[in-house]
Amino acid sequence: MNALISNVLTQVCITLIAVAGIYVLTGLTGMFSLGQAAFMAIGAYASGILVIRTHIPFFLAALIAVVMATGIGYLIGYPVVRLRRDYISLVTLGFGEAIAALLNRMTTLTGGASGLTGIPRKVTLTMALVSAIIAIALAAFFKTSKYGRQCIALKGDELAAKAMGIHVTRIKMVAFLLSVALTSYSGVLYAFYMSYVDPTGFGWKKSADWVIMVFFGGVNSLTGSTLGAFILSALPQVLRSMQNYRYVIYAILVLIILNFKPSGLLGEWELTPRHIRETVARVRNKFGAKKEG
Amino acid sequence: MSLQVIINGIATGSIYALIATGFALIFNILKFSNFSHGATMTAAAFVAYFLVSSKGMGLVPTLAVAGLAGALIALFGEFVGFRRILKNHSAPTYFFVSSITLGTLYEGLVTIKAGSNFFNFPSFFAEPTVGVGSLVISTSDLVMFAISAVALLVLAFIIQKTRIGRALRAVSFDRDTAQLMGIDSTRIIQVAFVVSGILAGFAGVFLGIKYTLYPTLGSLVVKGFIASVIGGLGSLTGAVVGALLLGILETILLAVLGSGYSTIAVFGVMLVFLLIRPQGIAGSNVQEKA
């Protein structure tokens, strides 16, 4: 396969994993995090430093990094799931920017602003693709599970969900931690694909980009979110020749969707056998009706 | 801690106050953070730079053009990013997404014109510093402080004493009821965006003078967020108090800890505020129900 296409696809797959996490957090539970990219940074740096310093195998380092990020996620999540929604985005924003500043500062460990170099390149397209499929399957499984349904309930009305006996803070915490684990894993893959990480790429803009992708494709649909992430993360790469114009085109596309189809590209549509059958039936009906008329 | 540090802190804080009030004004009405505010600042400052300052005109025309540009950009943003969402009664979370996208759009447009270069405003003042006793105050700080203070006082007067200010407060309090009382809430929301755009234009020019002008200057809007969190989201007085405190705190931390750790410490202070007193210093009028 063409090296350029393979490069773009690998990066898209890594983004898809993070966006699966955002879907669980924002799409299902309705929490906005502007610090999710910091967990990606933690995953990337922790695994990278472990492999460079201690020479432990890649898979072990990846596991430790994800567990570590989830642990930090628990500490941050503890106050976060108890706060009102608009404060959640601010707390996570503060946390994310503080982590970015910290990575910049801890020069001996992280290489500071010049970045962490010399991470061995272990990630291939196949591996990224398989990881992305597993991550999306995990999110799909979560959505249809008891937890997912409780998430959707509390997203609609937290007070009513509480009254129905849903343990709101615990469910929010489960969703938050799943999201953190997925995001930090995408960070691990990122580090071992790029073989270089620096703190600039993990600010709140990155987290915001992921949220935009979810809304673009359809905030209530995992299929939509995945599609949105696929289109929007591939777009700037495809438009690379147009350098300066790519983010303008990107922004205009998203604004058009937000204005004219606020539920996103796919709305509530999911890629399940039932939905496919229904859609096929609807198209056939339309077609049949035209023939009769 | 000398008086000098506090004076420098107040000078920085007065710019943050401009950012934070522009931000709080929109938060008041839409009940959601306007993340395009930073990029509006940058874009307005760049318009003023290319149209006026680079041709050798002084500070006053620069500010006037920046204010006008900020107002027009904010008006455009209201129309493109918020009007339909408001009409559709979509969840306020959509404001979040569309405001960030608008920010990306403005930043992209500025980058097309300016590249990723740094620009310097010409020095507007003949005397770079003013000495008061043993204190040395930079002239630009003094002028910026004075202009910010006047702008904020005018804003306070408009909001508290005029018809349009009363309408603004009514719409902030309850949009639907205000509409029923005969207030054109769309028009009032436009007014709020225009005012916040003017403040953004001023803040953009001041930040450009204090640091340099570059396309991602808008990321300094985070200081505005922090200031309004400390002061209390949605409270204009709180935003000003929070901004001045933040300016002083930052200058002190900068002197004690150096530039890297002071950033972390400032975010730490914000987190502590959110956890201990989420309604901020001023308290807030935002409903606490989920």
List low-pLDDT spans of chain A: none
What is the tally of beta strands of chain B? 2
Named CATH topology of chain A: ABC transporter involved in vitamin B12 uptake, BtuC
Poorly predicted ranges of chain B (pLDDT <50, ≥5 residues)? none
Main beta-sheet annotation of chain B: 2 strands, antiparallel
* Largest interface by Cβ-Cβ < 8 Å: A-B, 44 and 46 residues
Structure at a glance:
With 293 residues, chain A is an all-alpha fold. Chain A has helices spanning 3-28, 36-54, 58-80, 85-105, 107-110, 125-144, 146-156, 158-163, 168-194, 204-217, 222-238, 246-260, 273-292, and strands at residues 116-117, 196-197.
What does this structure look like?
The complex is a heterodimer of chains A (293) and B (290). With 293 residues, chain A is mostly helical. Chain A has a single domain, classed as ABC transporter involved in vitamin B12 uptake, BtuC, CATH 1.10.3470. Chain A is built from 13 helices and two strands. Chain A has a two-stranded antiparallel sheet. In chain A, helix 1 runs antiparallel to helix 9, helix 1 packs across helix 10 and helix 2 crosses helix 9. Chain A is globular and about 70 Å long. With 290 residues, chain B is mainly alpha-helical. Chain B has one domain. Chain B is built from eleven helices and two strands, in the order ααααββααααααα. Chain B has a two-stranded antiparallel ribbon with strand order 1-2. In chain B, a hairpin with a 2-residue loop joins strand 1 and strand 2. In chain B, helix 1 packs parallel to helix 5, helix 2 packs across helix 8 and helix 9 crosses helix 10. Chain B is globular. Chain B starts with a helix and ends in a 14-residue tail after the last helix. The mean pLDDT of chain B is 85. Chains A and B meet through helix 4, helix 10 and helix 12 of A and helix 3, helix 4, helix 9 and helix 11 of B.
